[in-house]
Amino acid sequence: MKDNFGREIDYLRVSITTRCNLNCIYCGKEDCDKKEQELPVAAFRTLVRAFAKCGIKKVRITGGVPLVRADVCEIVEAICQTEGIETLGLTTNGVLLEQFAAPLANAGLDSVNISLDSTDGSTYRHLTGADVLDKVLRGIEAAQKAGLSKIKINAVLMRGVNDAGAKDLIALAKESPIDVRFIELMPFSGIGEADDRRITGDELLERFPFLQPMESQENATARYYTAEGFRGRIGLISPVTHKFCDSCCRVRLLSDGRLKPCLAYEESYDLMPYMENETALIARIRQIIAEKPAGHAFDTKTPAHGLNRTGG
Ligand code: SAM
């Protein structure tokens, strides 16, 4: 369906938990133990069916860390079996991916995005608070083996923290047919809009002039580049310096059943009162999507919460 700005909203990011097994320095940790608020599989089935009837075609499971939920494969199956849903992806930090990759692929998952901010062990530990880089790298291999095609690595660079390792992250896309995407540090959890630790997409292009823009830019979120001899692509996701809200196509469902039309604002709307009547649920979802904000206002308004609650 279209929102009031004429944008086709067909992408739903479903955060199935706020729980997280890392403590990334740029992400929030609040609400990380609210297990009791996590919806059961049946509720996600009901909700995604209603969203599909509102025009949602693409779903991404996120969190916190979705793989901490023992029933994550049942949730994947329920969403894959929903009429109208064409693709299902999952975003994870990769720590538990080694053991879940094959079951997730068997449950019907199409693709996986893995957050990896450094390939250097001590930098990774400093950034995430955990010494699990080897597990994540094995998880990426397991995902490739399980045929979770189009693996995308998401990295957030912070000046003086991990930006020296950008070249090693870029090298991953040379050796394998994977996409490495650099997401600009966003102003959440008290990070400022003008935080000088942010490495912008434009700065990366200056640092790595060998990157050549790809002809086909499949969506407006990431601008894709490649280079001589590369098997994969480099993506630049620059929500702060290259705002792409005009072409936003997504809304977010939080793990407690609240619909959040835009990640940049605190507002989210409880769908639980409508669960017993699909017609009323669809009407409420359509109303909230229609009124989705025009775009973020990071320059004047930064959300207090971290992305662990919303799902990146
Ligand atoms: N825990 C899973 C993971 O690590 O991929 C999924 C949820 S996590 C919130 C999703 C993404 O949000 C991660 O790639 C993380 O790097 C990103 N993220 C969190 N806080 C951010 C911030 N302030 N700016 C940019 N990206 C952020």
Task: Describe the structure in your own words.
The structure is a single chain. Helix 1 runs parallel beside helix 2 (72-80), helix 1 (41-52) packs across helix 8 (278-290) and helix 2 (72-80) packs parallel to helix 3 (97-107). The chain has one domain: Alpha-Beta Barrel (TIM Barrel). It is of the alpha/beta class and 312 residues long. Strands 7-8-9-6-5-4-3-2-1-10-11-12 form a twelve-stranded mixed β-sheet, covered by helices on one side. It has helices at 41-52, 72-80, 97-107, 121-128, 133-145, 166-175, 201-207, 278-290, 307-310, and strands spanning 11-15, 58-62, 87-92, 111-115, 152-156, 179-183, 212-213, 222-226, 233-237, 250-253, 258-260, 269-270. It has nine helices and twelve strands. The structure holds S-adenosylmethionine (SAM). S-adenosylmethionine binds next to strand 3, strand 5 and helix 9.
CATH class categorisation: Alpha Beta
Helix-residue proportion = 25-40%
CATH architecture, by name, is: Alpha-Beta Barrel
In total, how many beta strands? 12
**Ligand inventory:** S-adenosylmethionine
- Count of helix runs: 9
Order of helices and strands: EHEHEHEHHEHEHEEEEEEHH
**Secondary structure category:** alpha/beta
How many domains would you count in the coordinates? Answer: 1
Q: Spans of 5+ residues with little confidence (pLDDT < 50)? A: none
The end-to-end span amounts to 22 Å
Globally, the shape reads globular
Which superfamily, in CATH terms, is the homologous superfamily?
Aldolase class I
